[in-house]
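Hey, I'm writing a tutorial for new members on how sequence and structure tokens pair up, and I'd like a real worked example in the thread rather than a made-up one. If someone can provide the structure for the chain below, I'll link this post from the tutorial.
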Amino acid sequence: MRVDFYHLQTSPVERALPQLLERVLAGGHRAVVMAASEDRIEALANLLWTYDPNTWLPHGTVKDGFAADQPIWLTDREENPNSARMLVLTDGMASSRMSDFDRCLDLFDGNSPEATTAARERWAAAKAAGHEMHYWQQTDSGWKEQGA
């Protein structure tokens, strides 16, 4: 399983997440996005409807239902009701079910010392579990992969 850490430095998750999810869908994949709370899930769901007036990302939450029909499922639980192969972690979330997916994207706030420390701990755990590790650093011009 491949784990990609995305070190957010120039924009918050609210700007980076929709762009990454556009790539996920363009690749023909489904995703589960984990966030810290129901309120955060609802905020992200609203964001995915409004982040760009010219597009939208099809998604759903437990409030919407029909999980199996949703290409992107937003949750605060360890679940995969839409048969996604891609897991996206936000808000410092961790999952004991990462191996149920083909790939995991872990987005963390590089401007927060606490978030960075927690991401290092998640990195060490994923590496110790034998996952293929990748590290992406956000720059003014986009993402640059750094040596893992």
